[in-house]
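agent: user wants the full assembly modeled, not chains individually. Plan: 1) parse entity lines 2) check alphabet per entity 3) run joint structure prediction 4) return tokens. Steps 1-2 passed, four entities, 1932 residues total. Proceeding.
--- entities ---
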Amino acid sequence: MILFDHDDDKPREECGVFGIYGNPEASLYAALGLHALQHRGQEACGITTYDGKRFPSERHMGLVGEHFGGDLRTRLPGYAAIGHNRYSTQGRPMLRNIQPIFADLSFGGFAVAHNGNLTNARELRHQLVRDGAIFQSTMDTEVILHLVARSPKPRFMDRLVDALQQIEGGYALVGLTGKKLIGARDPIGLRPLVIGKLGTAYVLASETCALDIIGAQFVREVENGEMVVITDEGIESIRAFPPRASSPCIFEYVYFARPDSIVQGRSIYEVRRRMGHQLAAETPADADVIVPVPDSGVPAALGFSEASGIPFGMGIIRNHYVGRTFIQPTQIGRQAAISKKHSPNRAVLEGKRVILVDDSIVRGNTSKKIVQMVREAGAKEVHLRSASPPIVNPDFYGIDMAAKSELFAAIHTHEEMVAELKVDSLGFLSVPGLYKAIGEPVRNNMQPQFADHCFTGDYPTPLVDHQHDESDKERQLSLLDDT
Amino acid sequence: MILFDHDDDKPREECGVFGIYGNPEASLYAALGLHALQHRGQEACGITTYDGKRFPSERHMGLVGEHFGGDLRTRLPGYAAIGHNRYSTQGRPMLRNIQPIFADLSFGGFAVAHNGNLTNARELRHQLVRDGAIFQSTMDTEVILHLVARSPKPRFMDRLVDALQQIEGGYALVGLTGKKLIGARDPIGLRPLVIGKLGTAYVLASETCALDIIGAQFVREVENGEMVVITDEGIESIRAFPPRASSPCIFEYVYFARPDSIVQGRSIYEVRRRMGHQLAAETPADADVIVPVPDSGVPAALGFSEASGIPFGMGIIRNHYVGRTFIQPTQIGRQAAISKKHSPNRAVLEGKRVILVDDSIVRGNTSKKIVQMVREAGAKEVHLRSASPPIVNPDFYGIDMAAKSELFAAIHTHEEMVAELKVDSLGFLSVPGLYKAIGEPVRNNMQPQFADHCFTGDYPTPLVDHQHDESDKERQLSLLDDT
Amino acid sequence: MILFDHDDDKPREECGVFGIYGNPEASLYAALGLHALQHRGQEACGITTYDGKRFPSERHMGLVGEHFGGDLRTRLPGYAAIGHNRYSTQGRPMLRNIQPIFADLSFGGFAVAHNGNLTNARELRHQLVRDGAIFQSTMDTEVILHLVARSPKPRFMDRLVDALQQIEGGYALVGLTGKKLIGARDPIGLRPLVIGKLGTAYVLASETCALDIIGAQFVREVENGEMVVITDEGIESIRAFPPRASSPCIFEYVYFARPDSIVQGRSIYEVRRRMGHQLAAETPADADVIVPVPDSGVPAALGFSEASGIPFGMGIIRNHYVGRTFIQPTQIGRQAAISKKHSPNRAVLEGKRVILVDDSIVRGNTSKKIVQMVREAGAKEVHLRSASPPIVNPDFYGIDMAAKSELFAAIHTHEEMVAELKVDSLGFLSVPGLYKAIGEPVRNNMQPQFADHCFTGDYPTPLVDHQHDESDKERQLSLLDDT
Amino acid sequence: MILFDHDDDKPREECGVFGIYGNPEASLYAALGLHALQHRGQEACGITTYDGKRFPSERHMGLVGEHFGGDLRTRLPGYAAIGHNRYSTQGRPMLRNIQPIFADLSFGGFAVAHNGNLTNARELRHQLVRDGAIFQSTMDTEVILHLVARSPKPRFMDRLVDALQQIEGGYALVGLTGKKLIGARDPIGLRPLVIGKLGTAYVLASETCALDIIGAQFVREVENGEMVVITDEGIESIRAFPPRASSPCIFEYVYFARPDSIVQGRSIYEVRRRMGHQLAAETPADADVIVPVPDSGVPAALGFSEASGIPFGMGIIRNHYVGRTFIQPTQIGRQAAISKKHSPNRAVLEGKRVILVDDSIVRGNTSKKIVQMVREAGAKEVHLRSASPPIVNPDFYGIDMAAKSELFAAIHTHEEMVAELKVDSLGFLSVPGLYKAIGEPVRNNMQPQFADHCFTGDYPTPLVDHQHDESDKERQLSLLDDT
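--- prediction returned ---
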């Protein structure tokens, strides 16, 4: 198995989810949809179907394309399926922590997969264990399952509402029972979830690119705080929370979503190109070539080139064939200027004044290496530009991004950053510039249109678990072996 | 992995258990002990230790000797360990159904392994699921775990007593917490459990042969209805049930226990030899050679030979190198007279009047094949003798033995059996003869000394689940993949 | 293991090679070098070192980064190493066909890896088998080994020269004995091989990008018909062939080499950009956006955009997470317009007149699918441009490209191609334009500077095996299992 | 995979072979036949068939029953098959050293498997390598293949004769071409090979038990120095060697052959029983019980009991579930008196004067442990009896038995042995007694009827390789990875 290394210095989100109801090849569509969402998580993947009687399930470490080939119709039969791609936010990878998870509850089977993090999961978990619940994984998702299992309400949907009303945080979830496909988005819509239609079947997915790959039509996004229930009768919407303004995570625009996805009616690729325009306007530099840090920096670099008139050049080549266990260049005494993933293209860089465009700077390590690599390849000047504002606050809703003490921009002044990165100049897109690129003329500071706390410190929800000590994180929580 | 096929036609029991407390090499001893108990279950094995902080655990399909080699002290550190060998009573083998199982309960971790079957497990399970419990396996053992988790009692031992008082059936269990090793035997002592001592450490095991292999001294058997609690302070006995007469399973003498084990002070080998003496007296025949069905029929055949004066000969050779996936002789059009496990030794059989001695006859299939094989090898006469009485009733306490409708002696008259088996004569040990061989002059019919219901129909406990429909047995009960 | 699918419709070459002599971490450098050459072959990889006594070796199916991690210094110790990445040209992947291959010959061990194909391999092989040679693989490389083993010459280098003088075809090989690292290039230099220096150690590699990743300095290319012998004494050059003009494969410029490599002093990236310039001049079209078929079409598309002034846009997104066993979209009834690898970026394409730029068109299948995909995403017009001339002849020197009867441009007129591809216009770079982009003002038609037979039919060497029947290709040639 | 440990202290032979010609289910029969021969080698197994065009082949580490299940007719189709079980005589197990081995020679394919060792293999191998042969394994068998490949004779059978005339040693081989199944036995018939008939198909096998399992009729043994050639026309006998007296290995009677096999018309079981009779007569002792070391000592112990009138008892229980990687009892500080394989049956041993009967004593280690184990179980006296004479010379024909300096009886006087083993008395069967038990009234000292050099020092053939240094044994001899 090849495990794709995430870029060390990028925010990671915890998942892509997919659901489909009403097609005899549900698992095939789920596999294709998850494949299109692979950029949201490459560590593990799983699909659960309902075949009219049982809930066949397969969960694997690794890529969708490594495992879900061949005879899927036989392995995972059924008219309905849910699936999940995972990025682990913590600890070592474990098979038992792969979603979807399933329980045979008193009213029948219930499978669920979710993207996001609950901010009060530990609190709820402790309470549940005190009440005799036995956990088999360390996933937040299992908390939801136990809340549903223990709800005193007689009807399943009431139990699910009951459960969701107890949890805090950002999530998009897909659930499957013998009769229903359910989609739910947290009250402020932090994590994305869209609805599509494929013939008479309904589809749920984290991004529109998963609809495109199967040829499904985009219907609309699930709204913040909305639950949609898809049955043989059609689709129904349930609103279990008091109305609130939506506040989707701004990182979907910056980094998470695939460039060909449409979020809130906006092309991610175009938004990123406009970030480049904006960045060129805000932080110009005299240079010979605009070089993206591939792949995620490409659209903004193209935008920067368009706006500045400075030519665009592929000065850095990305090697996609990287396995997780590979030797480290440092093992042979070479450090910054070589990389398993990025190679300098000397012909583009040598003797040039280079503007390097990246989507964001998190811990700064990768940026340092890339700057040094570009310099060693002969660049005369290196001007680094981030197509997003400085990241100065951690996230607690499912983005795995390092603690505040590791955030480069949080612990350095601008001058220190310039010195550490060894760049000739450094520029970040402004928060207003980011909003403008997205298409919002101004940020509503009283009620920001997006969850932008990493840039601004405005957390959209209370953080229950956050005050707790993290030290017992490693405690064994399951009956199952780790191996 | 080689999975040892159990003899198709033998009763199977569900397990061997082992526990040790107070030795820094607990897992090494557990591995050796389980190896000595391998005859009680070859499908899967597991060991859980307590290392002062966590409960390291390994569970595997296959034999102890295939998995528990090498650096056990590193893999499974700790001063205390419990372990388990399993024979699956139903369904296909699944990793999630391997014991010990573990839960992190509100008062700390609790690992448990058990041998036996609960007769009210399904009833309890349904109730627990109705109350919101989420099961991760289909094992009875998990019911006990949930009962402990949900007990309202504040102290762990009280919770465990509370749980055990709710279950019915035959069991021997070993449990491990951060402070205690616990052994418990059901109220009538159906399943065996012995106590040993190795230096200052205490040991629990299904049979004495597991004490012998590690050089531990036999102390005594755990009594029926007794719980023993081993801590740093020593051993303590708890009696949570009203006193009852003990009624251990008579099949330990007939087939389950290893010949070198001592059960209730009696050598299994000697008991079986005496069964042979008794059998020779009850069902004599004029013959040239006494041939055992190896390996389990050997001691009784030796006894038969001693008592009858007819020479003993290894007329059937057993091939121990059998893998589960191997081709079937039937694939090439040959049927009864060849076998992957048994080969006729023509030199012993040809032209001879043969008395074949087996320990028991369950469904009759293997007996038929062996008789035919012996005839094809040239035996002039074949007289089949079973060193136990006719099996006419199924077991519900953890022995997997076929339904009543499949029990050869339950559905045929003596004449039909002789005809079907194509033997010249057929003889079974009588129930009084069996008791006598064990060392009990007479069976106490009001209160039989052993659970002998398979021979007599006297079930020692009520059978709660038994009235229920078996049809939902295959229902998926867990959040976990089957693979 | 994830096996990377090569683009179905691209020429494939058979390998990357690497060698290093004189560094205690030879295997670590070999692994990094092969990683940089991974684009030349992703099916299998191998490294052999010499540790002063033995030739430790590891060969694996899959990527370098999947297998060569961890403790390489222990697994593959030694001051010298050779390595190989493979693309299989035929048949299913087999472990026994992975290079380097090794033989213990009368004078000592000899390991060899090579890139290329021998055009008289079958002839030689038949002769060798007639003379009693036993082959263990189906690789051409083994022919060389047998020729060396059987040479009557007493000294190793004379034997190797003897062997090379008998073979025909295009190759670059690296060889390792207990005392020497050898590099050799065929008489016309079809396959590439460069020399580098890392401190006092010498390095051989298919491309300069493998020198860059380890920080080695480029020294020069091995010349056509040259053998270089590297020992503790330094480097020596041997010329065993009569002088000939060099004729390297032109596909290195078009497709094979990585954009950051330097071939014959020319930046591959710049050459491809100039192909784009030339293509824009030769086959202009009125359009709104230039869209590359990623990744290989990007430099030419950037060049086209620069020359034409039409904006560049990432209208197709490439998914790099593709596993070989993955389900096919056709399994669910959708055909051309979806793909596991390419997704349309509707925001760039919708309502636009699009010029699609690819590096080449081989069988046309992928092009058809991409054109349809682009149309379904809303493009108003699609103008397809190939940055290389029409491919009308097959290769026999190690490029796996389909038979003539499958070459799209060989079996269709221009009009047919336009109709089949359903494009609004179609343009190919001309042969003179290609030469110009590479930096040669004119093609020397009497003695072409490059092996361009796929475009022109001018094969640079005789094709011995080609007249033979291919039907016995599948004959089992080895003592080894296929599994 | 479970790898069965051979008894540390037993001679090991290198193989079982099987061949069948003329049945559409050849591979199924080969699998069953090899299963019956599993006692001759448990490390690896392989089957090669001929399907009319190719030679499908599978070779695996481990038991026949682990690998050759399921769809054998599809995996290994064909009317003819050969197969092999291996015990490695040296070095670590390697996949490339598993037989059958195959070569595509100038006249077509040839697969071969053999049991035995060539005494001039290294000499021949060095000569072949000097002449340019490339070896891929370290097996003697490959020498034969190269000799056939290089023979100047035009016809295959002449080449094979040519090859066999060059080799020295003891062997039984089976070979398969597109037209023939060949069996050959060395000039003195050291290694066994029998002919059977199954319908119209011919069968070759190391022992008759492999005929029995498939229901084939025994025809006769292949004679010493004979080659049999089986084709569609029937069976033909070729005698390529000058006539010599036969001298089969006496260890087939002592240890190798399965008790139900018939060798030279004699039942192995009966021969061993008579060894017990003879042993009782030669080395009587006053005792209470005769205890065999199971399983191989059982027949002789039964014979001893019959002859002496002392009762037979299973005082040692054998555990068959032993995996190779299992922990060693010594890891936990216990040494001689415990064992993974043998357990004392205290009820038989305690307070008794015990005569322990084993088939042979090689290095003495196991005997020491068993004696100590029996004593610790309470035996009052232990009298050890070996059913074969003292082993005082090593073997060089394929039995792996330790060097002379490790042979217990070769380096100790009788008194030393008694002291080291800590027995009350020690007895060995005499050489005349062994001959008598086999059925030969006297040993022909000028021309012994059996190869009994391990007991007598009379080696039946010259030992070419033996004078050579063993130090280069570990030299890498193959192009193939060890992994």
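agent: reporting back. Residues 1-7, 467-483 of chain C have pLDDT under 50 and may be disordered. Chain C has two domains: 15-246, 267-441.
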